[in-house]
Design a protein that fits this description.
11 strands; three-stranded antiparallel beta sheet; alpha/beta; binds S-adenosylmethionine
Length: 392
């Protein structure tokens, strides 16, 4: 190492340490990201040409192994593993050499796509398994559909991959293992992001002005209720009912829930049964659906709202109009293959809400994140909404 290289490294190291200290002090997301960038620069500076070659030249072998695993039916067999599958079972499916299976599985395991229970015994690694199969078949889907943007929730990459004609939610209801993996993923997904009530001004925007004998929050498509449970823990004395709505298969999957949270089996493509609530909260719902379907959901919500009192809170990514980051762009691809859904920019959100007579009042973004809350209210009476419900 030359003296100059050594000096550069020590400058970068000092900078990286300073940014880590700044993150410790402030606990701000922007500071954490800044620290990651500085540490990554330091790591790159430490790399030798052989390290870079290893990364660039050899990393596509992971994609190759995934493609081969898909051709050998491995993801399907893994997704049905009860509780594991063996190398012998995997090799029998397509009469493959066990040695080849073991080599492919080693790559999948060390990259987190499966795990090993014992030598030659494999378990699925959460939701990845169901997604991987769809992702592997998505290029074929696009060849078949002449590269049209998927716009039908019942005819997208998932339906092509699993040869089914229902929505992804119908498919989950028919596949209880996958449903459990999905709900567990959604519950765990938030552990690294602050709960919405920690950064949304709940007191000012919701509780002040809330009427005691009216529903306070309706969590529409709220899964097994983790977001309302989090709300109740932080605001135990808030007045007004908390209502959790989801499909029957999800509501029936709930083992234990605070008695103060009312469970309602509800299809959000049907009229909203809870009228005049202070807030209708949708977390990670709209990105699962094309605009046409979102308009139906929002139209039913608008019809249940009381003008000047009720609000719609949509917690999702607000994709920057330019230079979107990896999280929202990769999620955009994921919802595209899973449910023909999409992530939206602020302009697209404005257009969507405006088309059902809702107006954005605020966009709340926790520091350094693009996942935030869009707060909207009724703009015009629902009767004069330019959109009328025709489907479902
Ligand atoms: C991506 S998950 C989000 C769950 C929860 N809001 C969260 O963020 O953790 C989408 C939810 O929408 C529900 N869902 C899908 N179709 C629905 C429908 N037609 N009516 C009501 N809920 C539905 C699913 O069961 C699932 O719980």
């Amino acid at each position: 190492m030359t003296t100059q290289e050594s000096t550069n490294l020590s400058t970068m190291s000092t900078k990286a340490m300073a940014s880590i200290d700044a993150y410790h002090l402030t606990r701000k997301e922007a500071a954490r990201r800044h620290a990651i960038e500085n540490v990554a620069s330091l790591s790159r500076a430490l790399e030798k040409p052989a390290d870079a070659i290893f990364k660039l030249f050899l990393s596509p072998t992971v994609l190759m192994a995934i493609k081969i695993a898909n051709d050998l039916n491995i993801f399907t067999l893994l997704s049905h593993a009860t509780p594991f599958v063996t190398n012998v079972q995997l090799s029998a499916s397509k009469d493959t050499d066990i040695l080849l299976i073991e080599r492919i599985m080693r790559v999948l395991v060390c990259n987190g796509f499966a795990s090993e229970r014992g030598p030659g015994q494999y378990e699925p690694a959460d939701l990845f398994i169901n997604f991987l199969l769809i992702m592997c078949k998505t290029p074929e889907f696009f060849r078949k559909t002449s590269y049209r943007n998927p716009g039908d929730p019942k005819n997208g990459p998932l339906q092509h991959a699993y040869n089914t004609s229902g929505s992804c939610w119908d498919w989950l209801a028919e596949n209880p293992d996958a449903l459990d993996r999905f709900n567990t993923f959604m519950e765990g997904h938030r552990t690294d992001i602050a709960h919405w009530v920690d950064w949304f001004p709940v007191q000012e925007q919701l509780l002040e002005g809330a009427i005691a004998n009216r529903p306070l929050i309706v969590d529409v498509g709220g899964g097994r209720g983790h977001d309302l449970v989090g709300f109740k823990e932080r605001f135990p004395l808030a007045v007004g009912k908390l209502v959790l709505e989801d499909l029957p298969s999800v509501i029936e999957d709930i083992q234990d829930l605070d008695d103060d949270i009312q469970k309602v089996k509800h299809d959000f493509f049907k009229p909203q049964p809870v009228k005049g609530a202070r807030a209708y909260y949708f977390k990670h719902i709209m990105y699962d659906w094309p605009d046409e379907n979102c308009r139906i959901i929002l139209h039913h919500t608008a019809a249940a709202m009381e003008r000047g009192y009720s609000k719609v809170l949509i917690e999702e990514h607000i994709v920057p109009d330019q230079n979107a980051g990896p999280q929202e762009t990769l999620l955009d691809m994921t919802v595209m293959v899973w449910c023909s859904g999409r992530e939206r920019t602020r302009r697209r959100w404005t257009e969507l809400l405006d088309s059902v007579g809702l107006v954005i009042k605020n966009v709340w973004l926790p520091d350094g994140h693009t996942n935030g809350i869009i707060e909207a209210e009724l703009q015009v009476p629902p009767e004069s909404s330019p959109y009328s419900v025709t489907a479902n």
